Amino acid sequence: MMVFINDCYKAEVIPTEYAEGFVKLLAPIAPHLGEELWELLGHTNSITYEQWPSFDESKLVDDEIEVVVQVNGKVRSKVKIAKEASKEQLEKVALEDEKVKEFTDGKQIVKVIAVPGKLVNIVVK
């Protein structure tokens, strides 16, 4: 529930469907607050008799992952890339990152070690 609240602070608009689902989850823990919020959402019946919210499994899978980019063994950036990205794509995205360029510009890249789904380590001289 805290993850939802934190995401709500970042969002400009919260869909009513999401707010209703949150209130349904809140109601057993804080019934009075749940009833008040349910009423504010425009419902006239009690939240007590509402059906428990269901989840969509397709929304649980992330298409992108965050990969750590290191320069000489020190974390310099994190990049988001497709889950199925190849080693070459991972290296390309890491080398094009602005934060990484600060540490590699004007230096010789000795080696690039890419572990798909985990990290990219760039060794420079």
Automatic annotation (TrEMBL):
InterPro entries, alphabetically? Leu-tRNA-ligase, M/V/L/I-tRNA-synth_anticd-bd, tRNAsynth_Ia_anticodon-bd
- GO BP: any one term: leucyl-tRNA aminoacylation
Q: Which domain of life is it from?
A: Eukaryota
Q: Which UniProt keywords apply?
A: Aminoacyl-tRNA synthetase, ATP-binding, Ligase, Nucleotide-binding, Protein biosynthesis
Question: Mind telling me which GO cellular component terms the entry cites?
Answer: cytosol
Tell me the Pfam families matching this sequence: Anticodon_1
Enzyme's top EC category: ligase
Question: What's the catalysed reaction?
Answer: tRNA(Leu) + L-leucine + ATP = L-leucyl-tRNA(Leu) + AMP + diphosphate
Molecular function via GO: ATP binding; leucine-tRNA ligase activity
Membership in a protein family? Belongs to the class-I aminoacyl-tRNA synthetase family.
Q: What is this protein called?
A: leucine--tRNA ligase
